[in-house]
Amino acid sequence: MSGSISNSEIKVTRDAGELTSLLKQKFPKAVLNFHAHRSDETIVIERDSLHSVCIFLHEDSRCAFEIMLDITVVDLLEMNMNHRFEMVYHFKSLTHASRIRIKVPLNEDDCRLASISNIWKSADWYERECFDMFGIVFEGHPNLKRILMYEEFEGHPLRKDYPIDKQQPLMELKEIEERHTYGREL
């Protein structure tokens, strides 16, 4: 046995799990699709329900998702989908020893959705990264600005249609207001 996983061991189910059923009951118009793989549920929800669903996942004792693990964007440019981007959120509940993945489809001409940084503080920099790299606007974010690229950078470099040979304008180095030397002389 080589230790690899065969296709017969991979089980994806279309049955609604407990969390999916709970969300479908609480937010009947929000749940667009769902599936489960190895007991991890993936639920696709509509954009305008994201903030309400996240508050419920965080604060309802039946869910108790204390930890926001990750936020990322998938660019579906060449996938012939009805939407261009898919926001992907991963949450973990230590209380119930469970994980959940929430996906939110976004159209290219309207890449905005509510920030969840007021629910999970750890979402702050993840949202800034998604804004910087893909141009997703998080409404209500306390400090939505570039985090990896410089302010004058034009475009969003992780979009699949970003030109690989694009030239960026040269910028003067701005004065650094504060430098942390951690006790070392410079």
Supply the CATH superfamily name of the domain at 10-113.
NADH:ubiquinone oxidoreductase Nqo5 subunit
Number of helices: 3
Average pLDDT level: 88
Helix content: 10-25%
Molecular shape: globular
Can you summarize the main beta sheet? 6 strands, mixed
Strand order of the largest sheet: 1-2-3-6-5-4
Instruction: State the total count of DSSP E strands.
Output: 8
Tell me the β content. Answer: 25-35%
Catalogue the unreliable spans: 5-13
Level-2 CATH architecture of the domain at 10-113: 2-Layer Sandwich
Query: Can you write the helix and strand succession as a string?
Result: EHEEHEEEEHE
First-to-last CA distance: 57 Å
Summarize the SSE layout with pairings:
Layout: E1 12-13, H1 18-26, E2 31-37, E3 40-45, H2 50-59, E4 67-75, E5 85-93, E6 98-106, E7 112-114, H3 123-134, E8 137-139
Parallel strand pairs: 3-6, 7-8
Antiparallel strand pairs: 1-2, 2-3, 4-5, 5-6
Describe the structure.
By secondary structure, the chain is an alpha/beta fold. The chain has a domain at 10-113: NADH:ubiquinone oxidoreductase Nqo5 subunit (Beta Polymerase, domain 2), CATH 3.30.460. 17% of the residues lie in helices and 26% in strands. It is built from 3 helices and 8 strands. It has helices at 18-26, 50-59, 123-134; strands at residues 12-13, 31-37, 40-45, 67-75, 85-93, 98-106, 112-114, 137-139. The strands form 2 sheets. It has a 6-stranded mixed β-sheet with strand order 1-2-3-6-5-4. The chain has a two-stranded parallel sheet with strand order 7-8. β5 (85-93) and β6 (98-106) form a beta hairpin. The longest helix has 12 residues, at 123-134. It is globular. Residues 5-13 have low confidence and may be disordered.
